[in-house]
Amino acid sequence: MLDQIHLLAAVTVLGVLEQAYFFLQVIYARRLFGISPPKTSGPPEFERIFRAQVNSSEYFPIFLALLWQAGLFFHQGLAATLGLLYLYARYCYFKGYKASSSERLTPIYLGSGVLWILIAASALGILRFFFSHYMGLNIL
């Protein structure tokens, strides 16, 4: 069974490490700009870093659920590849947002597109399972 999920597990660990990196960037920015928790406002440079981290954290559970569903029900290799592309888009989003709010747009569109593909792969995989398991039909 592990050979059917090892790529998904690796992408999950990379995603967790990426989230930790984003979190550390907020800590460094707090120190740099002298902003103590629980404050979330300050110079625009700090607020962009903070928002990039929060936005990335908000999407992370959605990403994980879709990654695993697409990997388990559709194809592990495709899901893992899309997962790596999503993590790269999120990294570019974070770096872009850190520099300027307008530089976050292209990476967020890329990341959203990847999520939509993961949704489609998940839905097709689950639909295929239902047809196969309950109706004995192989639709793919």
UniProtKB/TrEMBL annotation:
The chain crosses the membrane at residues 7-28, 62-87, 108-131. InterPro entries: MAPEG, MAPEG-like_dom_sf, Membr-assoc_MAPEG. It comes from Atlantisia rogersi (Inaccessible Island rail). GO terms for biological process: leukotriene biosynthetic process. GO terms for cellular component: endoplasmic reticulum membrane; nuclear membrane. Belongs to the MAPEG family. This is LTC4S synthase. It is found in: Endoplasmic reticulum membrane; Nucleus membrane. GO terms for molecular function: glutathione peroxidase activity; glutathione transferase activity; leukotriene-C4 synthase activity. It is a multi-pass membrane protein. Keywords: Leukotriene biosynthesis, Membrane, Nucleus, Transmembrane, Transmembrane helix.
